[in-house]
Amino acid sequence: MTVPPLHIALVTETFPPEINGVASTLGYLHDGLRSRGHRVEVVRPRQAQDGASDDDAMLCRGWPIPGYPGLQWGASCMRRLLRRWRSTRPEVVYVATPGPLGLSAVRAARRLGIPVVSSFDTNFQQYAAQGGLGLLARLLTQYLRRFHRRTALTLVPSISQRLELQRRGFERLQLLARGVDSQLFHPARRSTALRQSWGLAEGDLAILHVGRLAHEKNLDLLARTCAYLQAHYPQRAIRLIVIGDGGRRSDLQRQIPEALFCGALRGERLAEHYASGDIFVFPSLTETFGNVVLEAQASGLAVVAYDEAAAAQHIRHGHSGALAMPGDEAAFLEAAGWLLEDEENLRRVRLNARRHARLQGWEAIVEQLEKHLARAREHCPSADVAHTQATPPATRS
Question: 87 and 196: one domain?
Fold first, then answer.
């Protein structure tokens, strides 16, 4: 299927250079679509470093999200979007986030008869449930279900996420996986000097974790995993290296004083840190995907994770990583320990992880997205005159 150039409006509340999985993914998708000849205008909240205006960007006001430094909600902009899209009409709208900005984009597009494709990339309802806010979790699930029903289709990044959403009554779900830049994330970036700065000698082990340091990431398991490995393999010097920032950083620094916290990193500096590690520990149970799993594999690390989302799709237990059933902490610790039972286990897994990840490029993912957007345009319904509206909890447009 050859797709002619499209005018695409990409609506999102996070975008590079912000550091999170959704922003990183959208950066690759945006650049990939443009390299294939499509015009991509971005609608997003203004960021601190924004300078001169861009004809292919519409910037709106944003509000900080409590507990998530550097992230924000975008303000509802329905009137501005209607004026902009009546003047220069996109052929399809891709809404990547379901906040007030995304909702106003869905409403504006439906009023103008422009097809909308949405993406489900963050488990907000699970975050609320983990925080003990059961009623809020149910309200969020209801809102998200109504939000995505108003779009032509919803793209989800993993098979497990699609099954979970289908179970909760979501409709018209299509898989759009994630890729990895295997030239940026590469074992050749391993740095002896960096490892020495971590206090590690030849033969010592660097246990890495990369990600947002937030409550929903199950980060207490990091300390227990390192303690388990040190207790069972005392002959190996082991140090935990934590890359990322967030609301739990100070708490984790008190909990694991022997760990090294490097803060948020990006680009080649991040890739160097990945490649200088040995084992990647990923204890999260709330991921829609988890881009860091593929980044770690591409860097030649052995990943220990729960058997869901990216890990379920890209790790074969005992071959290219080590998996545990979701929520089984004892099995998670045993999976980590298995990697150190002999040198061959760790060597073989790291080699197989790199071999697998180098085949997971972004080009095929961008091509899939291109086809989804083109099909949505071809099957565009007539303008929704009634434009029945969904309203998110505690949000007014």
Answer: no
